[in-house]
Design a protein that fits this description.
PIN_toxin-like, single chain, 12% strand, three-stranded parallel β-sheet, mainly alpha, PIN domain-containing protein, PIN_dom, PIN-like_dom_sf, Rossmann fold
Length: 103
C-alpha cells in the first residue's frame, strides 16, 4: 500500500474545485492510504473558517469534506521535532513522513 501525505493547500484547492480531480482516485483506491494528523485537520478547520474562502463552499460541504478525510485517512501522532521546511508551519508534514518511515 502506498502512503500519501497531502499538503493542506492541495486539500483546500481540491475542495474549492480546482483541477485536482485525481485526488478522488486516491481517496477511492484501496492501494493508497492517505496519512494525516490532528494537527493537519486543525489547520484545515482554521483555513476553511476564513471568511475569504467561505464563498467557495457551504458549511455542510466543509463538514462532509472533513468527515471524508477522517474516514479515508490514517491519523498519526508524529511527535517528531523537525525544523527544516521553508515554511515552518509545514514541519509537521515532514514529521508525519518520518513517522511513516518508522512504522
Amino acid at each position: 500500500m502506498l502512503k500519501l501525505i497531502i499538503d493542506t493547500n492541495i486539500w483546500i484547492s481540491f475542495l474549492i474545485g480546482k483541477n485536482l480531480k485525481g485526488l478522488h482516485y486516491f481517496l477511492q483506491d484501496n492501494r493508497f492510504q492517505i496519512i494525516t494528523s490532528n494537527e493537519q485537520i486543525s489547520e484545515l478547520i482554521d483555513v476553511l473558517s476564513r471568511p475569504k474562502l467561505q464563498k467557495y463552499f457551504s458549511k455542510v460541504q466543509v463538514i462532509d469534506f472533513l468527515k471524508l478525510i477522517e474516514l479515508k485517512s490514517k491519523i498519526v501522532d508524529h511527535k517528531a521535532k523537525i525544523d527544516i521546511c521553508r515554511d515552518p508551519k509545514d514541519n509537521y508534514l515532514l514529521g508525519m513522513a518520518i513517522k511513516m518511515l518508522i512504522i
